[in-house]
Design goal:
Elements: E1 4-7, E2 12-15, H1 29-32, H2 40-44, H3 48-54, H4 62-78, E3 83-87, E4 90-92, E5 97-101, H5 111-117, H6 119-131, H7 153-162, E6 166-171, H8 175-183, H9 185-196, E7 201-204, E8 217-220, E9 224-231, H10 233-239, E10 252-255, H11 272-289, E11 294-297, H12 300-314, H13 317-321, H14 325-351, E12 357-359, H15 362-398, H16 412-421, H17 426-438, E13 443-444, E14 450-451
Helix pairs in contact: 4-5, 5-11, 6-11, 8-9, 12-14, 12-15, 14-15, 16-17
Length: about 450
């Protein structure tokens, strides 16, 4: 389905032609290779700092460029915890969750450069907390920008508490988080889900002998946690169990396959680590500049355009046919809002404008909507893959009759005859036909006849 992208005064609607076929035809990794790139128009109108961030890896490929952009937005979002916008009457910070999914050795490792962007801020926070006089730091707070992905949920909550509720987990291997999840599935999953919508979280653990219970209890009214991770398709299913898993809709997914091709190892004779560490000084600077609460708002025209686009996505054929995609679209709206927030904050930081209120620029609004539409197609694929897994399991367990049913129109009597010859009972055959209809494997018309 082709979705509109609005530009200028939002009265002129163009079509985004890079969108791909529906994920309902996806058969695993072969679909990943056809997922769309973030449109070039986005890169042509990025805020200057983001333009400088994507430029060093422009020769590595379009996938790598998309990955560094998304992961950098994630890092920046965590550095803007004092920025806040209202959506459906609820205040949201810019904190973004992204999951890059691709086979091994496919280029997703460039997200490590995004982590270097936050290194200066991380080291400054850590050094300041270590140098704090003990009398002023009686609670032993340890401030970190990056929280290790292998931390327990209790440790993450305590780090968030030390950091005024805000931090980021950035891991280039999802197995780091998968391992932590296996240790305490319920609480870790709950933490990720609750922090996406800033719902209160708490932790209570057994303390040292003689310690008071209140010293071991931590509660955060508004957790603000960004999560940027990459992994293989297998790691996705280790982290997210099914389309019913609430974590599926808490991430903006970017998925692709890989055609292995040797890239010139000496194309750029530069030290990218040094470049990104240097660019990271800007992250520290706008973290300081946004040290006080700042309100983010969309214009009235942008609000109307936003609702129009999200309503179109929610009413799309793909949402109607892929189980779980509707929840993904609902929360993708929040992700879109947050992307617009980050883009606007970065642009106005560099323009050195007054920071009492951030009014979204039309350029950044358009970019956020284009990125969101791209993420929708990628989310469609990943959600469709969960549906396929569910269908494959169903067919393995209950597909014995389906294979024998005619490819042309048939009646219940015909199905009963086939099933009885297979040794099935009448009750089982009727139950199977109902289940096949519910799974969308066959259809039943008003005359009571079936089509495969």
């Amino acid at each position: 389905m082709l979705m509109p992208v609005l530009s200028g005064d939002f009265k002129h609607i163009n079509m985004l032609n890079s969108l791909t076929p529906s994920a309902k035809s996806a058969t695993g990794m072969n679909m990943y290779g056809t997922t769309p790139y973030i449109p070039k128009e986005v890169y042509n109108q990025l805020p200057k700092l983001l333009e400088e961030i994507v430029k060093p890896i422009k020769n590595q490929g379009d996938r790598e460029r998309d990955i560094i952009l998304l992961s950098s937005l994630g890092v920046m979002s965590a550095a803007l915890h004092n920025v806040e916008g209202i959506m459906r009457g609820k205040p949201y910070s810019p904190h973004l969750n992204f999951f890059i999914v691709a086979p091994p050795a496919s280029g997703k490792g460039v997200m490590g450069y995004a982590k270097l962007l936050g290194e200066d801020l991380h080291n400054s926070m850590l050094l300041n907390s270590l140098n704090t006089d003990k009398d002023d730091n009686s609670n032993g707070k340890l401030k970190l920008f990056f929280i290790p992905g292998n931390s327990s949920s209790a440790a993450i909550i305590r780090h968030l508490n030390d950091n005024s509720g805000s931090a980021i987990i950035l891991e280039s291997e999802a197995d780091t988080i998968v391992t932590a999840l296996k240790q305490e599935w319920g609480t870790y999953s709950e933490l990720i889900r609750y922090s996406f919508g800033h719902e209160p979280v708490s932790s209570s653990r057994k303390g040292a002998p003689g310690s008071n219970a209140h010293e071991n209890y931590v509660a955060i009214a508004k957790p603000m946690l960004s999560i940027v991770i990459s992994g293989t398709p297998g790691q996705v299913t280790s982290l997210i169990k099914s389309a019913e898993d609430g974590m599926l809709s808490r991430f903006g997914f970017y998925v692709f396959g890989n055609k292995h091709k040797w890239k010139n190892a000496f194309d750029d004779d530069v030290n990218l680590d040094d470049i990104y560490k240097s660019l990271g000084i800007n992250i520290s600077e706008f973290n300081k500049q946004y040290s006080k609460p700042v309100k983010f708002v969309l214009t009235d025209a942008q609000k109307k355009a936003f609702d129009f686009l999200m309503r179109k996505l929610m009413a799309s054929e793909e949402v109607g046919s892929i189980y779980g995609l509707g929840a993904g679209v609902a929360r993708l709206g929040i992700i879109a809002f947050r992307i617009a927030m980050v883009l606007t904050a970065v642009r106005q930081y560099q323009a050195d404008k007054p920071l009492k209120e951030l009014v979204c620029d039309d350029i950044d609004f358009n970019s956020a909507m284009r990125i969101t539409q791209t993420l929708f197609k990628h989310t469609e694929v990943i959600t469709g893959s969960f549906q396929k897994m569910k269908t494959d399991k169903f067919l393995k367990d209950k597909g014995e009759l389906l294979d024998k049913l005619p490819d042309v129109e048939f009646t219940t009597d015909k199905a009963l005859k086939i099933g009885l010859n297979m040794g099935m009972t009448k009750r089982t055959i009727e139950r199977r036909l109902k289940e096949y209809v519910e799974e969308g494997l066959i259809t039943k018309d008003s005359r009571g006849k079936y089509n495969k």
